[in-house]
Amino acid sequence: MTTLDVPVRNIVGDIDKPRGGALAAQVRHSVALARRSLIKTIRTPEALIDVTLQPIIFLLIFTYLFGGAITGGDRHAYLQFLLPGLLAQSLAMGGIALGQNLNADIEKGVFDRFRSLPVARSAPLVGAVVADIVRYMTVCVVMLGFGSVMGFRVETGLLPALAAVGLSIGFGLCFCWISVWVGMMVRTSGAVQGTMFLLVMPLSFGSNVFVETSTLPGWLQSFVHVNPITHLVGTIRGLLVGGPVQFHLLITLAWMAGLLAVFVPLALRAYGRRA
Amino acid sequence: MSDLVVRAEGLRKRFGKTQALDGVDLSMRRGTVLGVLGPNGAGKTTAVRVLATLLRPDEGTAEVAGIDVLKQPQRVRRRIGLTGQYASVDEDLTGTQNLVLIGQLLDLTTRDAKRRAVELLEWFDLTEAAGRPAKTYSGGMRRRLDLAASLVGHPEVIFLDEPTTGLDPAKREDMWGVVRSQVTQGASVLLTTQYLEEADALADEIVVIHHGRVIAFDTPDGLKRRVGGLTLRVRPSDPARVPDALRVLDAVAAPGTGASMDDAAGARRGAISVPVATDTAIDEALPALRRAGIEFSDLGLHLPSLDEVFHSLTESTTAPQTTAAKEDELV
């Protein structure tokens, strides 16, 4: 270790005022923390398996293994039906890793340092969520790209398809706050995964992802009708292969707003309490 | 009063059934090092977390740099640096990325944050490893990066929670050098440690915490006077020469003390203990023993161990502690 003097303070002005105002500072801090998450994602590409390989495997299994039985032989028709549904399921599952990562960060003490810095309490969480955009974009690209290799065709047009991608990413960003909250509440990152699976599995299978709602028993239909995944799938199906969109879209947007309104405050409060 | 850069009164914090802090008062003068000494689980880390705005106490008040920690935590955060007990650098980020991120969160411009990172990495001898992810660093390098991270914002008050636990002696001395240089530049440092030696080497004043209570607050010298300071221990090879050895060693004993047979049982049986003022006493003792023709099988200098400090301090505070416990039961 050298004995070089560390130069004296070079911050000028009032050190109690964040540069450019509080809001600008919060945006800047969240972006800096989002970049941190992105660097971690790039360093560990295997962490992207759940948004790349896993959706592909589901697509293959359901199309070629069950597709013929479900539709009575028309696998292409089933692919057109299935892909929008699997996209929604993959978005919901893609958020699980976020809660696990945040839980691990807290256990390692990385967040203690952030909390000892003059940043808004929400910045580390918001930063991590923003960085998750990349994962949801990956899901969309992989599903549409690999799907088209398997024969999936967009039957509407470019704009509706882009709208479907945009809505998908937006839904992913809202839904993942559940995972963030669970990540703050449970002890280990393994428990985050377990808890989230208990939630995501019934939501994605108890929906119109794999079969038409009309084929289900009545009691199950009533669950399917309130399930947010159902309406997200309905919207994406309409936007990609045609059909009514408006009803499903409105309910999906309401769910997104509701998820944010409930789980952002819950997650922030749990984060604040976690010692 | 502005001379005090840390001031805490009556801090209490309970986790479930554990009373981690049970009425802790602390004060640290500006430009000094305060050593917070205590065994594992004494409440040292909890006290630091309260002062560093990470944890709200159940009761009590605290001021850091003259600012109320509970009422204005953001203003406190602009003036402190924290290095936790577990190296809290981000393993997937490089050394540079870790430091730049903290600079950005401290509202430096990206350019200033980069410049500061380069400075600190050079100062901590990490320039060569700057571009590597921190997970490839050795334990000592991680600890240095962690310490560098707490200095990015030129903090007025630095909290170091067991900064040298697990480091080898040479690395520990490097850390001590860093702490001293920060104080020279006007910072105040509060450090927790389990090592009496470390508190002795660095601290201007020492607070001893035990079971969430302050059981002593003194200068290192004052503390040592209370628990017994440096001891020269000699074991003559021939027990028959012990009386001669006692006479010879009396001459090097600290003023007001004398050589005596160690009354402790076990390994120290048959050894002579001599309280000495400085370690130069050994330079006098050795030739004197040679001149008298006394052979010895063991000779060494010993600081009181932390165990001895606690033994000595807790013995003298046993009485009030039991009454306090009874009061708690009544309440």
Automatic annotation (TrEMBL), chain A:
The chain crosses the membrane at residues 47-66, 78-102, 123-146, 158-182, 194-211, 247-268. GO terms for molecular function: ABC-type transporter activity. It comes from the Bacteria. It is a multi-pass membrane protein. It holds the Pfam family ABC2_membrane. Belongs to the ABC-2 integral membrane protein family. PANTHER family: NODULATION PROTEIN J (PTHR43229). This is Transport permease protein. It comes from Mangrovihabitans endophyticus.
